[in-house]
Amino acid sequence: MKKSASLWLLAATVVPGTTYAESGVNLYGIVSSAVRYTSNLDGRHHDQVALVSGGMVGSRFGLRGSEDLGGGNRAIFQLEAGIGSDDGRAAYNAFFGRQAWAGLSGNWGSLTFGRQYNALNNIGWAFNPLDQGWGNFWSDPLYVGGDIFFQDYRINNSVVYQNTVGPFSVQLDYGAGEQPGNQSRGTTLGGGVKYQQGPLALGVAYDQRSSTDGTNTIRNYSVGGSYAFGKATAYLGHMGRRETASDASFATSFIGLGYQLTPALHLSGAYYRYQQRGAVTTQFQETPILLGSGNADSVALVGDYALSKRTSLYVEADVVYARGGTVGRETEYWAGTPVTDIDSTTRVGVMVGMRHQF
């Protein structure tokens, strides 16, 4: 729930000489923090207790606004900053690191320019059983193997077109690589379609990103669906990734259920199956280490209790059992150091937190 604020006077002081008659600006945000216990975080049986920013949703604040231009057209913009609710730092190494864009909208759809989400994020996240419309959370099982299926899902220097026609929502996006002398290196290209009719929702999305040196292209895709019946919603999905510079490929499949037990209490649970194949390496080492094939199973449960329309408490529990090369990906992502001398590892986590919206 975003609370509208008449902040056009404030906006006018930020941009001298600009008037905002017939315009509106919304100030909104979410602050979410949690205490999380994780066992065997590094594959060496070292546990951790931490105050984590975000918890079940990334903390943020932003400004969103529009101006009526007549003829059914509007000028629109959004600036959104990610914040660490544990230490107050800006996220993503930028002040408005989550989103920063402006554009036009009308009956024909919208065309926007700036730092924006690609179609894979906007459509793929909709079918994550634990999402509930909030997006990713701290220990989301979609991070098994590292943040790979949605890595770099915010596109800099991008142009995004969106439109909804009947039950279909469409997005096309392009990000300029801005490499001198070459129009293809560093570029991103993607799109997706979502179908929503009554209780049924289906979606498919694709994204590809070329490296700035032209040696590798990463291709991600997502397909999913959901069906609501009574107080419950069932989810099913599959995501994949392939890197052209090697034969490395990744995939995750999931199934889950959400249930509104009472007007205040929502419960959800899901199972995820992750696989990696080929010449998979570490993600963050200066000299990549070959890890190879592997797989993992994960189960997660979430309970979300609304104290009011804007404030909620939540509890989450998850377990991940990784095997083969996935052990190295898991331990590097969560603890910083890849473990390569053991065949399997189990990580268990429990998180309790609070979320407030404004």
UniProtKB/TrEMBL annotation:
Molecular function as annotated in GO: porin activity
Lipid bilayer topology: Multi-pass membrane protein
Domain Porin: 11-318
Protein localization: Cell outer membrane
UniProt cross-references to InterPro entries, sorted A to Z: Gram-neg_bact_OMP, Gram_neg_porin_domain, Porin_dom_sf, Porin_Gram-ve, Porin_Neis
SUBUNIT field: Homotrimer.
Name listed for the protein in its UniProt record: Porin, Gram-negative type
